[in-house]
Design goal:
It contains 13 helices and no strands. It is mostly helical.
Length: 332
Amino acid sequence: MASTETGVSGAAETSDNQGASGSSGAAGRDASGPKPSRSQPKGQKVSKEDLAGLEAGLDALETRTAERVSLGSVLLSKIVPPLVAVVLVITVWQLAAASDLKPDYVLPGPLDVWGSIEKMWLDGTLLGYIWTSISRGALGFAVSVAIGTPLGLLVARVKVVRAAIGPILSGLQSLPSVAWVPAAIIWFGLTDATIYAVVLLGAVPSIANGLVAGVDQIPPLYLRAGRTIGATGVNGIRHVLLPAALPGYLAGLKQGWAFSWRSLMAAELIASSPDLGTGLGQLMENFRTYSDMSGVLATIILILIVGIGIDLLFFSPLERRVLRSRGLLVRS
């Protein structure tokens, strides 16, 4: 019996020792296990806070103020400064004309110039002169865009082409447009082809270089992302390349229009013929032939007004829309 009790008690002690060792092993495992489990929630908490802060920052960047701008603020910021500048120029001009620095036929006053514009308006010829030049400029600019856009893409994406004609485009852009007029007259005679050739040679390099600059400023990540989703070839150009390069391309278009208008005036001024019709450039040359300084200054003012009007009515709103859509121009 004693031996039996001893065996039983020994077995019990053995089982108790095993249970204790098992519990201590489990405790050890529990003691070593929670370290990563305790550190993991802490890491998750920090990452969530970081993400929350990042989302809040992005929301703040995308938030646009909905405050309506009063009419008085618009007048003070947009309309009054140009009007003040125009009034100052006219005042100085009138003072210079009244001080007899030059004879009246050399330096007419603002009222004399206004009289020339009013006379053309009453004769019904003013709008015809303006439309002739605007239609030529618009057509020449449209053809320049059709030529300059693929040329710019080719130069921007093909290294051999850029090395070959990239410097030539930059040189053509810096070449005065009036330098092409004598050559164009010899090539095409006194025809509309001469005028359009000068416009194209003046505008195409600016448009192409503007697109090249826009493509060069695209982050490489955008192009890699486009290739990843399968936007290659024409689809890549349409959906990735041109949208990403749009700010630089738009700047090139704006400059291209300025060069088109300047080239057109130079061509009309030199290539003057009754068969070509009368645009603003021919009109100014006609006034110069008759030594009518009032008419010359009136034509200069009309050319300036048309150039500013096209920019304000078309290019400036388009540029603001593109920049605002990309978060580069926030309305305050």
